[in-house]
Design goal:
CATH class: Alpha Beta
Oligomer: single chain
Number of helices: 4
Largest sheet: 5 strands, mixed
Strand order of the largest sheet: 1-2-4-3-5
């Protein structure tokens, strides 16, 4: 699945399996965020198949990216601050901030997972 501003190749699993199970409602929220932000949004990680997610994340086979309702957005500095305002306004339920290290590796994770007991949602965390 792709949209006006987000193409299949940036949303597809990076392991080579070719899967892109991005949720349509989630993709519509990303489009809303892109319009709010007013400039391109670079996705570093979109959908992840369970096997690939296990190799790159502590969240295992059922992490947020495996649901099709999560992406990591490459962004840093003032753009990160501005994008975070939009993420909060659009009501994403999971927000992970990684704003340390090399500028081109910094990102904001966004997802729309529903309320869970551990941890409760909405939730904001840092890496």
């Amino acid at each position: 699945m792709e949209s006006k501003h987000f193409k299949n190749n940036e949303l597809t699993c990076h392991c080579g399996c070719g899967q892109n199970l991005i949720d349509e409602k989630f993709l519509n929220l990303l489009e809303d965020l892109r319009l709010w932000f007013g400039k391109p949004i670079n996705i570093s990680s979109g959908y992840r198949c369970p096997v690939y997610n296990m190799s790159v994340s502590n969240s295992g086979k059922t992490g947020p990216h495996t649901t099709g309702k999560a992406v990591d957005i490459l962004v840093h500095g003032d753009n990160a601050r501005h994008l975070l305002k939009g993420v909060l306004a659009i009501n994403f339920t999971g927000i992970g901030l990684n704003q340390k290290g090399l500028y081109d590796k910094r990102f904001i994770h966004v997802d729309t997972l529903m309320n869970q007991e551990n941890p409760p949602r909405p939730w904001i965390w840092t890496y």
